[in-house]
Specification:
heterodimer, A: Serine Threonine Protein Phosphatase 5, Tetratricopeptide repeat, B: alpha+beta, Methylamine Dehydrogenase, Chain H, Thrombin, subunit H, 5 domains, 5-stranded antiparallel β-sheet, 30 helices, golgi apparatus (chain A), structural molecule activity (chain A), ER-Golgi transport (chain A), Coatomer subunit epsilon (chain A), transport (chain A)
């Protein structure tokens, strides 16, 4: 029986991992899972601990002892943990990965390439080559690389490429699509595709997820509300967006650059941009490389040129 | 098909039954001689009629009059009054048992049939038998009129059904035939059997229907078609058809195993219902003549079946009473998704109603082929992400669901293509890609994906009887005495609530509350199934929905009612026909009726909003409602009293008596006193006196005692108040009234010994008077008494008299009202006292003024005495300006090639046409080039903010995986557009123009002229980058641009004037005059005129002052401003000349140069600026426009184009 199916053991933990319920993922005891699923559960747990910005080394060490013969996996997780905990990867593990041999390695290495090398194109090439070289069966079961690939294309504003990958899923077996990862990527495609029906469908996923218990995972709720905030603005439902804004602020999470960027847009739409300067400064101090900051700088240069070009004596 | 029993009576054998046409009543005639009248909705016996001797076999209500008729084995027909509940008269004539009796639908006739083998027709108005139809040669078991035509159908044990034509009878009784009959006519009539002694033909047998093998017990007409159904002892139901000339047997319905006693057509559906002594009711398909459904009673034979004339109800008589039932549910399956109501209409088609637009769609999908022909769609669930519906249909073990995709574009009721079906008594979506189906027989809950594959199976407890929707990922498990919230994913019971026989659930819009509906109970709980309130309804509850504010509206069979979370409830509307509430938006209640149609009902929510505000202590809202609504009635007053707000109730009441009671209740003596004065009634005064005494308000007490002439009480009141003065007055009054007892009492109170002695003397009680005087040291008086009595002092023996006992001295000042603790006024009293209510409006405050009605409050501005007076100095008009000959600098205006882009931005760049569109798409170069060409725009710096605003307003960042940058997302102009070649960016701003103008006017009014100019410029800048939808919007933008130009120009002139050297009187007067030429809104223009008038007058330019005064009077003919103008005018006209010569001709047409603020008279050369159309003297060509600050004067330009 497929452990990820509705009735399978890993169904819930996977859903929780991909919906940022990391505290929940972390709180499982491995003994709750059958021996054959424990390693996968541990993998989610370690990734969750790292996502929560905690040090996962001791859990990784325990895992190594408990699941001998998986050194490669633990080495990877260890490198990822180091990277997230110390900001650098002393072991040069990721730099040494030229081609990925298994899913998680492909996923984490791609993230590394984007984060450290800031090279999205290289990341896309790397991931595409992994996917192309994966045999079909694995491809059907391991769809996280597709999720990342789609996001990378959408980061670059290349909807056509993202949509092509997504549309191709129609050729996959139903079981591949019956997966939280697929639903998430579907929601992105729908949102960015636009049109009320699509945006509403995308919205409905997050709205539905919101009904889960996020008491222990405010960071997960923060993320969900942020997505809903974007979709609500996209639908031009401003009073509802305002309501979401208050809800998000009430969660008192650490500042988030995307949230600030979207607040800037929202402020233009409802306040005529009265608070934009403050928000922009906040965004710059938080993440000077945020796409909005970069974009606005580019546009400022263009605009300066325009001013100079047309200037006449008063 | 389901048979739903609505009512059952328990009695002896019931033989006849009839529905009242309007009220929820049935008449039941019993074999025991009684007739019963039941309210089948309430289940109560209303009355009993006993006048017949022996069994009563038949009854019928009159269709319009308060009458009914009965016939029994005593051979008599009785007509009864429903008003007096008595038998009015008896019709005798039949010679054996009466089998059926009924009224004609419009003539005053009754038809009866009997074992005496006749059918008789009676006129109940003149109580005469008007026809006796013979022909049957055995008992006539039933006879009835045709519902529209002049026909009768009868059934007899002679094995025939007969159809009779009674048009002759109608002719005879509707108008007397005075004309001579033709010979042929008379001859023909003589041949006919059914004629009276005058040769009139009453009725002729039209058809004799033979086919039954045994006696026929019943025959009836179809309500609209030429069909007859008959029931016989041969155990069959036969269907007959007739034409104008013949009648024939169509088919036979076989299945009953006993004598069939009665059969009728369904009034609306193609069905036949029959009853038999085999203890079954059977339903047959009229078209296919096959059985559809049967209902069996264990030990009762059925005798008769009757249908309600209008609604879906039937009544069947059996051995132990009657049962009233309906066939099939009438609640149209429906579901709400956002603002869309999806429902199944009467034709079994799916339709959608747009609640926002109040528009019904065409039918979009036919469900006729889903399930069996007569299976009813019971529930519907909608999946937005998949645009599909899930319906359940059928009953019991034959219950199924169907999952069907809806068409994207509605073109009519198409046949569904991709139907995924399965077994299930209930099914609904629980997440966007999962639904559940519940199979009652095995108590199994299946979780299925959209391909109809089972992904999970859950075995439920055997006590689960039904399942309802429980929010995302959850279901409610219904047991007979409880309900459980069940998490399907975790297979976990989350919470439980004890509640009986829940049938439906309605979740509040925010998912926080749910209303559980049973037949007669509504239970409200929160989402954790904690009980909030529960209430009982005598009339069956049909539906419920929550409004946005969390009030539950529900419908019963005949009402729409509301309930608050605290259980307070009331009726909102009485319904003629039952409705199912689906959604409430403000005052609109969106319902479905039993014909599967949407009905939108407008309700008055004031009462429940008021109560809710009161319960939530939202007193501002309460006050608003008090002020703005017509909320009255005893109900609301009683409610307020009950809730402890008598002071609020006071505001509603005019009736003095109620006001008095309420005032007492809230201890408001002042109001109570006012009302008591109006009522002036002893009981009222007494109540007021008691309350005033309780409160220690002696003034009111005194007033009340005075009103009631309670002198003794008054005296006592003054005594304990220590009010000597009034007490002595009371003595005087008592004396005046001759009330000695009272007088003595008063002398006791004020210790007036002398007076008391006098009273005793007057009363002849000399010994007492003497003793009193003596013992109090009034020696002289004692002596006089003795003299009067004619006795000596020695004759009187007195005990030893001690010292005079002094009475306690009252306080120096009489005491006043009791010092009560100052009570704080309630919120309402405060509000009502300080008049706050007056300022409350139920309308939302308008955030901005419409610029059309620019505020008339210009107090800050028009105080010209202070603001405008200190102008002086000289202004040196430089006539020798160097006029530059240069042309405007040549700018490379070749339109830059649009950058190529992918995705959304690519679409935008291909589709946009306006500068705003280009800016939003990030193509700043294109936008700038376009603006330069269209408007001669050269100074872009002021537009920096606008460019970035337009650009940023359509960009969003969708967060994805945490470690990756966000995805670019976009806001489109129209989210309903699905054609990529029309995708355009959203460019905001048009909607805010008026708001922004209002800000400009506000600055104007506040005399912040620089700010006003900046605001109007800002509006110009935003219009430059707008994208609007149509010509109308573009025209409006042009108007706004012109308006902004005029204000900037006018205000700039005024600012220039204020900056002048005070000695420059001529320029001062000129600028003041030019300011009046700006096309401002009238209230603002008045300011300009007033400045000009004041300045002119001040500087002795009386002719000009008179002109400006005239202009003011034209715009504002009355008020203080007009008075002042009038005064100036009168004064100025006496001199009528100007002391200072200025360059201003009020009667000439001219523009004002926006650079020099001098006139450009008609015909003089000028150059124009393109964006706002500002005029300049030619020498300003090529310079930057002073009005806009961004465009070049006189530049070649194609004009503003902002339609996107």
């Amino acid at each position: 029986m497929d452990a990820f199916a509705d009735s399978g053991e890993l169904y819930t933990i996977r859903n929780q991992f991909y919906t940022n319920q990391h505290h929940k993922v972390r709180s499982y005891s491995l003994n709750q899972f059958s021996p054959e699923n424990q390693l996968k559960a541990l993998e989610y747990q370690i990734r969750s601990i790292i996502a929560l910005e905690d040090d996962a080394s001791s859990v990784i060490d325990d895992g190594k002892a408990r699941f001998p013969g998986n050194e490669g996996l633990f080495q990877l997780l260890s490198a990822w943990n180091d990277l997230k905990s110390f900001g650098t990867d002393d072991s040069t593990y990721f730099d040494d990965v030229k081609t990925a041999t298994y899913e998680l390695q492909a996923v984490l290495t791609t993230l590394y390439v984007v984060k450290l090398d800031k090279d999205i194109d290289q990341a896309i090439t790397f991931l595409t080559s992994y996917i192309d070289n994966t045999n079909t069966l694995n491809k059907y079961n391991e769809i996280e690389p597709f999720l990342i690939l789609i996001q990378l294309h959408l980061v670059k504003g290349n909807f056509a490429a993202a949509n092509k990958i997504f549309v191709n899923f129609a050729n996959f077996p139903d079981s591949s699509r019956d997966n939280i990862i697929y639903q998430v990527m579907e929601s992105w495609i729908e949102a960015i595709k636009g049109e009320s029906d699509n945006i509403n469908r995308s919205y409905s996923l997050y709205d539905e997820l919101l009904s889960s218990d996020f008491d222990d995972d405010p960071q997960g709720k923060f993320k969900l509300l942020n997505v809903l905030f974007v979709l609500t603005i996209q639908l031009k439902h401003y009073p509802e967006a305002q309501e979401l804004l208050l809800q998000i602020k009430a969660l008192n999470q650490k500042p988030n650059a995307d949230f600030i960027a979207n607040q800037i847009t929202f402020d233009y739409l409802v306040n005529g941009g009265a608070n934009v300067d403050g928000l922009l400064n906040e965004l710059k101090s938080l993440d000077i490389t945020h796409p909005l900051v970069v974009d606005l700088e580019e546009k400022t240069t263009v605009f300066n040129d325009i001013v100079a070009k047309y200037q006449v004596e008063a | 098909m389901k048979m739903l029993t609505k009512f059952e009576s328990k009695s002896s054998r019931a033989k006849g039954v009839a529905f009242h046409p309007k009220r929820p009543w049935v008449l039941v005639s019993l074999h025991s001689s009684t007739i019963q009248l039941w309210d089948y909705r309430m289940g109560t016996l209303i009355d009993r009629f006993e006048d017949h001797v022996g069994p009563v076999r038949c009854v019928d209500f009159h269709p319009t009059q308060p009458l009914f008729v009965s016939g029994g084995d005593d051979y008599s027909i009785k007509v009864w009054s429903l008003n007096t509940r008595k038998c009015i008269f008896t019709l005798n004539g039949h010679l054996d048992y009466i089998r059926t009796v009924s009224f004609h639908h419009d003539l005053p006739w009754i038809i009866s049939c009997s074992d005496d083998q006749t059918i008789r027709i009676w006129n109940w108005q003149n109580r005469q038998e008007i026809a006796c139809l013979t022909g049957h040669n055995h008992y006539v078991m039933s006879a009835q009129f045709h519902p529209t035509e002049d026909l009768i159908v009868s059934a007899s044990l002679d094995q025939t059904v007969r159809v009779w034509d009674i048009s002759g009878l109608r002719k005879k009784h509707s108008a007397p035939t005075s004309s001579m009959r033709s010979f042929e006519d008379q001859l023909q009539r003589q041949q006919l059997p059914q004629q009276d002694i005058f040769g009139n033909v009453n009725a002729i047998v039209k058809y004799v229907l033979e086919g039954h093998d045994k006696g026929v017990n019943f025959a009836s007409f179809h309500p609209t078609l030429p069909l007859i159904v008959s029931a016989g002892d041969d155990r069959v139901v036969k269907l007959w058809r007739m034409s104008d000339t013949k009648a024939w047997e169509v088919d036979t319905c076989r299945g009953h195993t006993g004598n069939v006693l009665s059969a009728v057509f369904h009034p609306h559906e193609d069905l036949i219902l029959s009853v038999s002594d085999d203890k079954t009711i059977r339903v047959w398909d009229l078209n296919k003549r096959v059985p559809i459904k049967q209902f069996r009673r264990e030990s009762d034979r059925f005798w008769l079946i009757a249908s309600h004339p209008t609604i879906n109800l039937f009544a069947a008589c059996h051995d132990s009473g009657v049962m009233v039932f309906k066939l099939e549910r009438e609640r149209p399956a429906h579901t709400i998704s956002q603002n869309k109501l999806l429902y199944v209409n009467a034709e079994k088609q799916v339709q959608s109603y747009d609640i926002q637009r109040n528009e019904n769609s065409l039918p979009m999908l036919s469900l006729k082929k889903i399930g069996k022909t007569w299976s009813f769609m019971r529930t519907m669930s909608y999946n937005q992400s998949d645009n599909s519906i899930l319906v359940t249909h059928g009953e019991g073990d034959n219950s199924n669901y169907a999952l069907i995709s809806l068409p994207k574009h509605v073109t009519g009721a198409i046949e569904p293509t991709d139907v995924r079906q399965g077994e299930g008594n209930f099914a609904c979506f629980i997440t966007r890609n999962r639904f559940i189906s519940f199979i009652k027989s095995s108590k199994t809950l299946h979780v299925k994906d959209m391909n109809n594959n089972i992904t999970k199976t859950i075995q439920l407890d055997s006590s689960v009887t039904d399942v309802l929707y429980g929010g995302p990922g959850r279901v409610l498990l219904v047991k007979s005495h409880s309900i459980t919230n069940y998490d399907v994913q975790q297979r976990k019971e989350l919470s439980e609530l004890s509640v009986n026989n829940v049938k439906y659930v309605s979740w509040s819009n925010d998912g926080q509350y749910l209303a559980l509906l049973s037949k007669h109970t509504i239970t409200i709980a929160n989402k954790d199934l904690e009980l909030i309130t529960s209430m009982h309804e005598t009339i069956r509850i049909k539906s419920a929905a929550w409004d946005d504010s969390g009030v539950l509206l529900y419908s019963t069979l005949n009402h729409i009612k509301y309930t608050l979370l605290n259980g307070d409830n009331g009726i909102i509307k009485t319904l003629e026909n039952t409705l199912y509430i689906t959604k409430i938006v403000q005052r609109q209640v969106y319902c479905l009726n039993r014909s599967g149609e949407v009905e939108v009902i407008t309700i008055d929510p004031t009462e429940y909003r008021f109560k809710k505000s009161l319960v939530n202590k939202n007193f501002n809202e309460v006050l608003r409602i008090i002020k703005n609504s017509n909320l009255v009635g005893q109900n609301i007053i009683a409610y307020l009293q009950k809730k402890g707000y008598p002071e609020v109730a006071l505001q509603f009441v005019q009736d003095p008596e109620t006001r008095f009671e309420l005032a007492l209740e809230c201890s408001n003596l002042q109001v109570a006193l006012e009302q008591a004065k109006i009522l002036n009634n002893n009981t009222i005064w007494e109540k007021l006196g008691d309350e005033a005494l309780n409160q220690g308000n002696f003034e009111v007490v005194e007033f009340v005692y005075q009103q009631l002439h309670l002198f003794d009480k008054l005296s006592f009141l003054y005594t304990y108040k220590g009010d000597k003065e009034r007490l002595s007055k009371m003595s005087t009054i008592a004396e005046h009234r001759g009330d000695y007892s009272a007088l003595v009492q008063n002398t006791l109170y004020n210790n007036d010994i002398k007076k008391r002695c006098e009273v005793y003397i007057q009363g002849g009680m000399l010994p007492l008077a003497y003793v009193l005087a003596k013992s109090n040291g009034l020696v002289e008086l004692a002596k006089q008494i003795l003299e009067e009595a004619g006795v000596e002092e020695k004759d009187v023996q007195l005990p030893e008299i001690g010292e005079v006992v002094p009475l306690p001295e009252p306080l120096a000042e009489p005491i006043g009202n009791w010092p009560l603790k100052e009570s704080s006024l309630s919120f309402f009293e405060n509000a009502l006292l300080n008049g706050q209510v007056e300022n409350l409006s139920i309308e939302e405050d308008k955030a901005v003024e419409q610029f059309e009605d620019a505020s008339a409050s210009i107090a800050d501005f028009n105080d010209e005495d202070e603001v405008f007076e200190d102008d002086a100095g000289a202004w040196d008009l430089d006539d020798d300006l160097d006029i530059p000959e240069d042309e405007a600098p040549v700018i490379d205006t070749a339109f830059p090639a649009a950058p190529t882009a992918e995705g959304e931005i690519g679409y935008w760049l291909r589709n946009v046409k306006t500068a705003g569109g280009y800016a939003a798409a990030g193509a700043f170069d294109q936008a700038a080039s376009l603006l330069n060409k269209q408007l001669g725009l050269v100074n872009f710096e002021p537009l920096r903010k606008n460019f970035f605003e337009v650009y940023s307003s359509s960009k969003l960042y969708l967060p994805g995986i945490d470690d990756l940058p966000p995805m670019k997302n976009y806001i489109r102009q129209d989210n309903d557009e699905d054609n990529p070649s029309k995708f355009k960016p959203f460019v905001p701003g048009y909607d805010k123009l008026e708001e922004r103008l209002a800000v400009g006017f506000k600055h104007f009014n506040a005399n912040n002229l620089e700010d006003a100019i900046a605001q109007f410029r800002d509006i110009i800048y935003s219009i430059v980058l707008l994208t609007v939808e149509d010509d109308e919007q573009e025209a409006k933008c042009r108007d706004v641009l012109t308006l902004c130009r005029e204000y900037i120009l006018g205000l700039s002139i005024e600012l220039a004037r204020r900056a002048l050297d005070p000695d420059d009187i001529q320029r001062n007067l000129e600028l003041a005059a030019y300011f009046t030429k700006a096309e401002l809104q009238n209230p603002h223009k008045l300011n300009a005129l007033q400045v000009a008038m004041t300045q002119a007058f001040k500087h002795k330019n009386f002719a000009s002052a008179s002109y400006f005064a005239d202009e003011i009077l034209k715009l504002s003919p009355s008020g203080p401003r007009a008075e002042r103008a009038q005064k100036v005018k009168t004064r100025a006209d006496t001199i009528a000349s100007d002391a200072v010569d200025i360059n201003f001709d009020p009667y000439a047409e001219f523009d004002i140069c926006a650079a020099t603020y001098t006139p450009i008279f008609r015909g003089e050369p000028s150059v124009t600026e393109e964006l706002v159309g500002a005029k300049y003297k030619p020498e300003y060509r090529g310079t930057l426009c002073k009005i806009t600050g961004i465009t070049q004067v006189g530049a070649q330009a194609s004009g503003l184009r902002i339609i996107g």
